[in-house]
Amino acid sequence: MSHAALSPAQAKRALAPDRYFDPEPRQKAIALELYAGIAQLPIVSPHGHVDPALFADPDRRFGNPVELLVQPDHYVLRMLASQGIAYEDLLAADEPRRVWQLFASNFHLFHATPSGLWLTHELADVFGIQETLNSASAQRIYDQIDAALAAPAWRPRALFERFNIEVLATTDAATDTLEHHQAIRASGWGGRIVPTFRPDAVVNLLVPGWADNVAALAAVSGVQIVDFRSYLSALEQRRGFFRSMGATATDISATTPATTRLGAREVDALFAAALRGEVTAGAAAQFTAHMLWEMARMSVEDGLVMQLHCGSLRNHNPTIFARYGADRGFDIPVAAEFTHNLRPLLDAFGNNPKLALILFTLDETVYARELAPLAGAYPALRLGPPWWFYDSWNGMRRYFDQVIETAGIYNTAGFNDDTRAFLSIPARHDVWRRAAANWLAGLVVRGMLGHDDAQNLACEFASGLARRAYRL
């Protein structure tokens, strides 16, 4: 008997069309109307971590449900690991059915979380599965997804078009040759996938293998790096190459947004010491602060939008980091101070019309106190959407309430999904669009906003703000 057949007892109601909206009847009615006007707009995804290799080969298909929905999603892995499930059991490549069973048997852990909402959306909307995922249904649903993935309609390029993605930005190391982006371009396919320049591995002196990364930068740029000036030249060469491949933005991560401009002799000496392997934590922090200033200077010169992600202590779980590397979901929010830390950069470039600086933080306490006032004071600044732990229904509501009154809607950068899990992109954008529609509807109900203005602003939240902020 086919596992795909569902009995009435196994069936679950479809996704509620009014999900997430305020229960007050008038606000819900307006929210539904606003949402209907933006639900089908193209997706602009200006920042994320989907592997461009998925789209380089037109015949590429997803391997199995685990490779698609479980293993690339650090939200999923983090939750399961928090309940004591061994990480190695989740990453087993040769037993996908066992990993899926483990995931499905623990799917209840995701109730009331963004991951649970996204995964439910993916199962229902992408695969047409209306059965609850649990221990009993696990293998039946695995078979449904696995059968779908074998069909051409579920190949990455086909799903890209089905999801109505206008543009997808990946995140790529400064040393990346962008071979997959080159293959996509050479294939003649019409999907727009652009790289984003990420220099963290050659900017953060404390990254393991920093010297090797700098050697790789020299090799790929063709610039012999012997001092700080040649190091900057190599970075500028790579930025130019990324731009030639369609990049419109850079992405830099720092624990704090500290910026400074060191004197030429000081930074030369610091860089020379780093090349000799003589690095202290204080010197590394100074170097990163100076490099944030340099990256802003470069953005003024070449027009690349500068993204700065702060307030995250990376790789907090040392056991996972040692065994499986970075970016496994174990980054933890820490306090961040922007007003004083950003001032050297803003003094130099904050009023320059050529700079676009988009700020992200995992420290919500600075939304109303620092970030919104700063964005309202400097034309170079835009505020990125709620990020990581706050990429959620309540996180979005808090963001709207704390930021918009002071900064205004047009000093924000719209939404980006920031995901490694390709199938979650439409689900994440759907939550954002519903949150924006519901928030705007509340303003209409209170007589604070006209209906036509609300509809226009809903379109801005859906795609317009991101398209302009990222110069796409």
Short structural description:
The chain has 472 residues and is an alpha/beta fold. The chain contains 21 helices and 11 strands.
List keywords for this structure.
alpha/beta, TIM Barrel, 2 domains, 4-stranded parallel sheet, 3-stranded parallel sheet, 11 strands, 8% strand, disordered N terminus
Rg over CA atoms, rounded to whole Å, is 23 Å
Can you tell me the residue ranges where pLDDT is under 50 for at least 5 consecutive residues? Answer: 1-11
List the total number of helices: 21
Average pLDDT rating: 94
Write up what this structure looks like:
With 472 residues, the protein is an alpha/beta fold. It has 21 helices and 11 strands. A 4-stranded parallel sheet has the order 6-7-10-11, covered by helices on one side. It has a 3-stranded parallel sheet with strand order 1-2-4. Strands 3-5 form a two-stranded parallel sheet. Helix 20 (425-445) packs antiparallel against helix 21 (451-469). The longest helix has 22 residues, at 281-302. The protein starts with 24 loop residues before the first helix and ends with a helix. The model is unreliable at 1-11 (pLDDT under 50).
